[in-house]
Design goal:
The protein has 421 residues and is α/β, with parallel strands linked by helices. The protein is 43% helix and 15% strand.
Length: 421
């Protein structure tokens, strides 16, 4: 769960439509609302249409905020021809009443697109009028699209108001764009310094994208795997021939080699056919503590580290999508099925150099000699991964573009700095 230092705030997200409507804006609103509500803030969606099934997220419907309300489309048809008449000003007054009713009590209002797009210029004008007479404590203008920057909209835009409001900085508003290139274009359009425009891109949600089940989601959150710099998967039972101590030593060496928060996930319980496997687990736990990585090595099948349910086949398959690489340190095996599974999951493989692994991995995996030191093994793993563009892209996405990180590192400070400063 994302954490923060703010007290509870009343925050509204305004857009023509909200989730479950499919679109990048709606996806952004849904993710921000869900995470901020999970932190204890009072979140409200102000939309022309949409809904939410998230705990702590209220929805206030005002059809005139949308782009398809009959009065809005009738006014837009005239505005597209350059006609501003009494119907427009009547609609502005009605939307102002909607805003007073739905957003008058908010401490922060995040407006998506309505201050830069012409889909409902009466809403744009109403927001301007309200902001100039009784400004919100915090108004954030979130720009996904710029009408004046799109050639296909040129015939629908005209000199003067209300169209010019889309290329002026709304008084007191904080400007946000979704990319650096968009920031430069907005700065030029509304004549503000680029440094006065914040960039907060859209994101992704690994659990949703991977369609993870409840066990994998719980592991991801409870173990803090969203903060890890490198996740190695070792899918095996705890038996001595798996040489799991080698994996633990490599994990400790990865930190020394600059991998930071490297994790090792051992999926299985102690093997049931040899009573000594229980003592082997105790030795491994002691070694993890001795090497300073007790919180980096996770025995998912051990009683002390078990998730909400056993690590079943489905969860193990999901862990392949969660992991950065497969690590197999066995000194003796019959074959090497996890190598085949890693191939299906497109996960890089690092394994001990033994004949069964050669048979299944051939020239498509990275072998670690049985006598290779943990330091050299860690260096080989890092060198191989850092040379892989797919790995670099994956880590950059996980470190920068997950919704949880974006809300924690960018959205929350945006709200916090304004309310306390």
């Amino acid at each position: 769960m994302v954490g923060g230092t703010l007290g509870q705030m009343r925050v509204g997200f305004l857009h023509y439509t909200g989730p479950p409507i499919i679109g990048g804006v709606e996806q952004t609103i849904a993710a921000h609302a869900r995470l901020l509500a999970g932190m204890g803030h009072e979140i409200t969606l102000l939309v022309g249409s949409g809904s939410s099934d998230e705990d702590g997220v209220a929805v206030r419907h005002f059809p005139r905020l949308g782009s398809q309300h009959p009065a809005v489309t009738a006014v837009k048809a005239k505005l597209d021809r350059g006609v501003v008449d009494a119907d427009f000003y009547r609609l502005v007054d009605e939307i102002l009443q909607d805003l007073e009713q739905g957003a008058g009590d908010l401490e922060a209002l995040v407006v998506h697109n309505a201050l830069s797009l012409h889909k409902n210029l009466a809403l744009t004008t109403a927001l301007w009028n309200r902001q100039q007479t009784r400004p919100w404590p915090r108004l954030i203008a979130w720009h996904h699209d710029l009408a004046w920057d799109r050639p296909e909209y040129a015939s629908e835009l005209h000199p003067g108001e209300p169209w010019d409001l889309l290329r002026r900085p709304c008084p007191g508003a904080i400007h946000v764009t979704v990319s650096e290139s968009q920031r430069r274009r907005l700065a030029d359009l509304v004549d503000v310094h680029p440094d006065d425009v914040r960039v907060i891109p859209p994101g992704v949600d690994p659990p949703d994208f991977g369609r993870w089940g409840a066990v994998t989601r719980r592991l991801y959150g409870d173990l803090g795997l969203d903060r890890a710099d490198l996740i190695l998967l070792l899918p095996s039972r705890v038996t001595r021939r798996k040489s799991i101590e080698t994996g633990i030593r490599i994990t400790a060496a990865l930190r020394e080699e600059g991998a930071g928060d490297a994790r090792l996930l051992v999926t299985g319980p102690p093997g049931p056919h040899n009573p000594s496997n229980r003592s082997y687990l105790e030795e491994l736990l002691a070694l993890s503590s001795e090497l300073g990585v007790p919180d980096r090595v996770h025995f998912l099948g051990a009683p002390a580290g078990a998730p909400v349910a056993p690590v079943d086949d489905r969860t193990i398959a999901e862990l392949f999508t969660l992991a950065d690489a497969l690590l197999l340190t066995s000194r003796d095996e019959g074959f090497g099925i996890p190598i085949l599974e890693a191939g299906l999951a497109r996960v890089p493989v690092f394994c001990s150099d033994i004949p069964p692994f050669r048979e299944s991995g051939m020239d498509d995996v990275t072998y670690l000699g049985l006598d290779l030191s943990p330091q050299l093994a860690a260096r080989r793993i890092l060198d191989t991964l850092r040379a892989d563009r797919r790995f670099r892209l994956r880590r950059r996405v996980l470190e920068t573009f997950t919704w949880s990180r974006l809300v924690r590192d960018r959205v929350l400070p945006l709200l916090e700095n304004r309310i306390h400063g």
